[in-house]
Amino acid sequence: MWRTDTYWFDVAVATTVLMLGHLGFGRFVEYQSRGRRLLKSLAGLALLVGTSVWAGRVWMYALLAAIGVGVLVVHGWWLPRRGVNGWTAEPRDRYYALMGLDPSGKPLGLSKRDDG
Predict the structure, then answer these.
(1) Which DSSP category does 27 fall into?
(2) What does pLDDT average to in each consecutive run of 10 residues of the chain (116 residues)?
(3) Which of 4, 30, 51, 105 has its CA 20 to 30 A from that of 61?
(4) pTM of the model
């Protein structure tokens, strides 16, 4: 009944990892629209499942591990070295400055429009 050698299993693994990522680190992308976050999730899912289809399941899991290492480096080392909590994205103003956003979380070029 249960088979793990299908692409649906790969889809389930990829979507589970994406869901856990959104639960744990969703506060880091609160400034993005829901549509953009959905497109990023679909692109990530397509990348992982596409890798499984064309390169094989081992390469998909290697890519998933590489992404996990990248997340650990950014949230566990890079952000804390710059004074931002890698789990809570606080202080917000410092995190927004690192991301190139204004204090309200909007891109710098869009927050104040100069029509002069």
Answers:
(1) G
(2) 78 87 80 85 91 93 94 94 91 89 78 49
(3) 30
(4) 0.75
